[in-house]
């Protein structure tokens, strides 16, 4: 017998604290019934636990993967509406891994996946200020004043303040290519920041996550992280 949050941690889904968040969001089921309270005790030998509709089981080997996510794919392991998910591109991976954070359906680029729940939770937590670098194509001509506004901070739809470092890369007809560096990664943050300075995003790609870049990785392809990359990620979030 084991507490559900500890079990989810052993399954590599997230940390124990992260598991409590998943339960609060209604994303965890026990024997096909949604868990509605914290501290539930399960029998790991016979109970069936699912997260977002996908059955989970304890991890035997920790795995760390980088995927160059194409556009038009859900950052989830299962979609009830049968839309294409990132699992379509991970069919040959012999381990179940979970995305660290999310990329929008139409957003491309660097997506880290792992079954190391503690690492995933910390990398996604704003406290650790993990850098995420994006390149965006936006409508209109971005001006230095727009850069200053985003750098200073702009109120987002949820009331939080979003900010980013912005570099103007160039202009294409009536559009601008920009590079943004964020350290918090709130929901749709890049799109919201650009919209609020009247430059809607028409194309978005994350080129780097926590210092790990796509390099020559083509869209839809994945690779295992190197030992050096894994060590750097753990050091970044004070995980020994």
Write a brief caption for the model.
The chain contains 6 helices and 17 strands. The protein is an alpha+beta fold and 240 residues long. The strands form 4 sheets. Strands 7, 8, 9, 10, 13, 14, 15, 16 and 17 form a 9-stranded mixed sheet that branches. Strands 3-2-5-6 form a 4-stranded antiparallel sheet, with no helix packed on it.
Describe this structure in words.
By secondary structure, this protein is an alpha+beta fold. The chain folds into three domains: 2-55, Structural Genomics Hypothetical 15.5 Kd Protein In mrcA-pckA Intergenic Region, Chain A; 64-126 and 215-236, Alpha-Beta Plaits, CATH 3.30.70; 131-209, 2-Layer Sandwich (Alpha-Beta Plaits). Helices cover 21% and strands 30% of the residues. The protein is built from six helices and 17 strands. The chain has helices at 4-10, 16-24, 117-124, 144-152, 189-195, 227-236; strands spanning 2-3, 28-30, 33-34, 41-42, 49-51, 54-55, 64-69, 98-99, 108-114, 132-139, 154-155, 161-162, 165-172, 175-182, 201-209, 212-213, 222-224. Helix 1 (4-10) crosses helix 2 (16-24). The longest helix has 10 residues, at 227-236. It is globular and about 60 Å long. The mean pLDDT is 92.
